Amino acid sequence: SLERPLLSVLFPSDDATALIHETRYTQPALFALEYALSEMWRSWGIEPAFVMGHSVGEYVAACVAGVFSLEAGLNLIAERARLMQAEPVGGRMVALLAGEEQVRAAIAPFARTVSVAAVNGPQSVVISGAANDVSTIVARLTAVGVAAKELTVSHAFHSPLMEPMLDRFQSVVASVALQAPTVRLVSNLTGRVVTAEEITQPAYWRRHVREAVQFAGGIKTLETAGCNVFLELGPAPVLL
């Protein structure tokens, strides 16, 4: 449960405007909006052949695919958000217009504090981690012509800064009934269609918190499978 009702955060009438940028509310808000949009399309008779998320979005995709119930999904995402909010602030996430190989080489000296958080395309990679080290990496890359964009986040997701919460979150997932997907679900961890054995293990969702989002690999999997209509269900067409 949330301290404030979600609608009062999405449509604030007081000084709560900034709450939507705190991950304890951002994650439940994203889940609620994306799930509602998926239900709207399905009410029109549009059923997905595949589903794929992006970080938090994989919880919606998994819920749509029947891996867990709506109630369980809401509880999972609220607890995930609460545990992340409790971690120290001060991390940064930056999107870089560069290839994965170049970015991984740049962050290698900071392996204990900075990670690749997402591979969104052949020349679109997000890094995440301790603010000072991220700043150093970005300065070195922009000096050689790499464009960079700061992401508006409260914490450094998919980075070493998330490690203190992993045990507690895995215990939360272990209390939830996880089922084999009834719709083909493309994994953020592998970029491939997930197996029932993978997705029903609490350790999968633990790794999902910490490891990079393989979005580009997922898109490649969908392309190879013959998909030619993609619907991005969210607050803005960021991934398009």
Any descriptors?
two-stranded parallel ribbon, globular, alpha+beta, 6 strands
Give me the secondary-structure topology.
Blueprint: H1 6-10, H2 23-43, E1 50-52, H3 57-64, H4 70-85, E2 91-96, H5 100-107, E3 114-121, E4 124-130, H6 131-142, E5 148-150, H7 166-174, E6 184-186, H8 196-199, H9 202-210, H10 215-224
Parallel strand pairs: 1-6
Antiparallel strand pairs: 2-4, 2-5, 3-4
Residue stretches low in confidence (pLDDT < 50, at least 5 long) are none
Tell me, what's the shape?
globular
Number of helices: 10
Total strands: 6
Largest sheet: number of strands, sense, barrel closure:
4 strands, antiparallel
Give a verbal description of the structure.
With 240 residues, this protein is α+β, with helices and mostly antiparallel strands. Helices cover 42% and strands 12% of the residues. The protein contains 10 helices and 6 strands, in the order ααβααβαββαβαβααα.
Quick summary of this structure?
The chain is an alpha+beta fold and 240 residues long. The protein contains ten helices and six strands; from the N terminus they run ααβααβαββαβαβααα. It has helices at residues 6-10, 23-43, 57-64, 70-85, 100-107, 131-142, 166-174, 196-199, 202-210, 215-224; strands at residues 50-52, 91-96, 114-121, 124-130, 148-150, 184-186.
